[in-house]
Specification:
Largest sheet: 10 strands, mixed
Structural class: alpha/beta
Distance between the termini: 17 Å
Strand content: 15-25%
Low-confidence stretches: 45-53
CATH class of the largest domain: Alpha Beta
Number of domains: 2
CATH topology of the largest domain: QueA-like
Number of strands: 18
Oligomer: single chain
CATH superfamily of the largest domain: QueA-like
Mean pLDDT: 91
């Protein structure tokens, strides 16, 4: 079945409100970890042995641990790939003269900016795509916030879009960047299912300890469980870490309302990946030296997107080589827009039996970057990963438990070859905490979806 034909109603479960963690545990790595399958794929389809304290369903092997013991769970020489995006204080509350409040939720910069970093570093003014709470109460004029040392941030409607607005922000402290303005005037955008106001502790706890690249409106929550002490223990076992960046955008909050997935549009999100890391991946698939674990669905979507960018380069070159207008430098002729990953590319780019190997695709991407004198790959991905997807990069995923009828649950269904329900039932029956501040799982890739 093509993922376009999937019904989101088939990916639901009963999530009681009291199973949603509204607050984090005091110690990040004390969270529980559900382990699904094994590194060699045994247990993914019910043919693996269960270890001490493990349980076995008809289709999967489960065992319980904690993040603090992750070094005991992962094999040595594993590579963990984290998303180092940083959540920005994207919620701004403006009070009108009549006392009513208008909330502006900053989603992403206008398309005139080449990337989020450029827009975040803007001074004096910036144009941003936003959601507006109480938009009907804001009919005309500008809104103002006083912040910091008596400075003023002004918001003016610029353009009305289909489901959002472009807002012109201006501020009177010419030395400040927009990132600094948000830090001073904004609020951390906690997920609505917390059903509570932001508290002082959230400013630190709703960020990973390695957050660096400002630009997300939601945290890459799988990374919230990692601590410096845990990284030290992992390194002692030669379990290494690398970083990619995917800035989490509006798609995180966009519910799937379509009857069929074909009618659901994924939100394109910015990724930023170093060429040296892509070369490391390419070399790893030449030697098959290490298991690669994505820490979070955002890291996974970034990694898998790298393969499809390389595949698109190869497909374009093959097309050019078969045409009368053959180019001697096809790689360099492709623009960054040409290789960005669209929603259905993985399912429609070319037949499965004609796809290049992972090493070949990553090599093509490295060559394209070399010929275009790029040391960083900054582009967008719209990839949707759902049952029917065959994984090219990762061997496993560390992730939290996700909402019913979400595209993140579709991704979990893909990596488990459709067997997501038993693991979620197990988690519910064994008091795991759900969603952003909850517990998590390590899912080893079902070998049948490689």
């Amino acid at each position: 079945m093509h993922p376009k034909d999937l019904s989101i109603l088939d990916f639901t479960y009963d999530l009681p409100a009291n199973r949603i963690a509204s607050y984090p545990l005091e110690q990040r790595d004390a969270s529980k970890l559900l382990i699904v399958g094994t590194p060699d794929g045994a247990g993914a389809t019910g043919d693996g042995a269960t270890g001490t304290g493990a349980a076995k369903s008809a289709t999967q092997t489960f065992s319980e641990s904690t993040y603090a013991k992750l070094d005991e769970v992962l094999p040595s020489n594993t590579l963990l790939v984290h998303n180092d995006t940083k959540v920005v204080a994207a919620r701004l509350f403006f009070e009108k003269e009549n006392g009513s409040t208008i909330e502006i939720f900053c989603l992403e910069p206008a398309s005139i900016y080449k990337d989020i970093t450029t827009a975040m570093l803007a001074k004096k003014q910036v144009l941003w795509g936003c959601l507006i709470g109480g938009a009907k109460k804001w009919k005309e004029g500008s809104l103002h916030i006083k912040y910091g040392n008596n400075h003023t941030l002004t918001a003016t409607k610029h353009t009305t879009l289909a489901d959002s607005y472009l807002i012109q922000f201006e501020w009177d402290n010419e030395a400040q960047t927009f990132a600094e303005v948000l830090e001073a005037a904004g609020n951390i955008p906690l997920p609505p299912y917390f059903n509570r106001a932001v508290e002082a502790n959230d400013k630190e706890r709703y960020q990973t300890v390695y957050a660096a690249a400002e630009g997300s409106v939601a945290a890459p929550t799988a990374g919230l469980h990692f601590t410096p002490a845990l990284f030290t223990k992992l390194a002692a076992k030669n379990i290494t870490k690398e970083f990619v960046t995917l800035h989490v955008g509006a798609g995180t909050f966009k519910p799937v309302k379509a009857a069929r997935m074909e009618e659901h549009e994924m939100h394109a999100e910015f990724i930023d990946v170093q060429k040296s890391f892509i070369e490391l991946l390419r070399d790893n698939f030449t030697t098959n030296e290490r298991k690669i674990i994505a820490v979070g669905t955002t890291s996974l979507r970034t990694l898998e997107s790298l393969y499809w960018m390389g595949a698109k380069i190869i497909a374009a070159n093959n097309s050019a080589n078969n045409s009368a207008n053959k180019s001697h430098n096809n790689h360099a002729n492709l623009s960054i827009e040409n290789i960005s990953v669209l929603q259905w590319d993985p399912y429609e780019l070319m037949p499965q039996n004609e796809l290049p190997s992972t090493a070949t695709a990553l090599g093509a991407l490295c060559n394209w970057m070399e010929q275009n004198s790029l040391t960083r790959l900054i582009t967008k991905t719209q990839i949707i990963i759902a049952p029917g997807y065959y994984f090219k990069i990762i061997d496993g995923l560390i992730t939290n438990f996700h909402q019913p009828q979400s595209t993140l649950l579709l991704l979990v269904a893909a990596i488990t070859n459709g067997h997501w329900k038993p693991m979620y039932d197990f988690a519910l029956e064994n008091n795991f905490r759900f969603l952003s501040y909850g517990d998590g799982c390590l899912i080893w890739l079902d070998p049948s979806v490689r």
